[in-house]
Write a structure and sequence with these properties.
It is a single chain. The protein is α/β, with parallel strands linked by helices. The protein is built from eight helices and seven strands; from the N terminus they run E-H-E-H-E-H-E-H-E-H-E-H-H-H-E. The termini are far apart.
């Protein structure tokens, strides 16, 4: 029985941990060759080794600062050369530098914008050169429910909202070349990043998950695979007529129990 992504090559930025790693695993499980990048080369290499070992697929891991033009172009070129092409790009790399507006530094504003917006632009620009030539491609950008506004996240919220506009515009420009561009906007997901947020607030991570679950209709927080499942759907042929869309994956409307 064939797998959905056999013969496809996928890049997942920020693919060494959390949602990125779960997404890389979901593609590998479906037969794709997967390239992951992370700021830390050892983490990227370890993630790639795990994919190759567990799923028996070709996997590549490398260090790449997605906000650095030269590094992005070199990474994408390497993937195409070593894996034989590029079919799918998942722009997942992200960071947080939370603070109230009056306390936020220009450096923290620029850093978050650089990784999310500049990084997504650079990776998409590099990938689309190959995708346009072959007239096929799938691109998914990672937004967030924070795009709707979130206290203490003026930088992150603005960047994630900007990604939604970028997604719609890229879908318009790249659609004539048979390239689908969509975004996924996760709600609260149990990741290393959200657990670190709990610790910074002096809250036990397990208690923090329970607190957050109280305002989610389904009564639980998300897990990375919840997001990965939607990403893989958007990159599949089942979603070939879906483009320019923002899919919120957050367990239903917020509620107070």
């Amino acid at each position: 029985m064939s797998k959905r992504f056999e013969g496809k090559v996928v890049i997942v930025t920020g693919g060494a941990r959390g949602i990125g790693l779960a997404t890389a695993q979901a593609f590998a499980q479906e037969g794709a060759s997967v390239a992951v990048c992370d700021l830390a080369e050892d983490l990227a290499a370890s993630a790639a080794a795990g994919l190759a070992s567990e799923y028996g697929v070709r996997a590549l891991g490398a260090a790449c600062d997605v906000a650095d033009e030269a590094q992005v172009d070199a990474f994408v070129s390497r993937v195409i050369a070593e894996c034989g092409g590029l079919d799918i790009l998942v722009n997942n790399a992200g960071i947080t530098r939370d603070n109230l507006l009056f306390k936020m530094s220009v450096a923290d504003w620029d850093l978050v914008m650089g990784v999310h917006l500049r990084g997504t632009f650079l990776c998409t620009r590099a990938a689309q050169r190959h995708m346009v030539e072959k007239r096929f491609g799938k691109i998914v950008n990672m937004s967030s429910t924070s795009a709707l506004g979130n206290r203490g996240q003026a930088n992150y919220s603005s960047a994630k909202a900007g990604l939604q506009a970028f997604t719609r515009t890229a879908a318009i420009e790249l659609g004539p070349y048979n390239i689908n561009v969509n975004a996924v906007a996760p709600g609260f997901v149990d990741t290393e990043m959200t657990r670190q947020t709990a610790l910074r607030r002096g809250i036990d991570p397990e208690e923090y998950m329970k607190m957050r679950a109280k305002n989610i209709s389904l009564g639980r927080v998300g897990v990375p695979r919840d997001i990965a499942n939607v990403v893989t759907f958007l990159c599949s042929e089942e979603a070939s007529f879906v483009s320019g869309q923002i899919i919120y994956v957050k367990g239903g409307p917020e509620t107070v129990r």
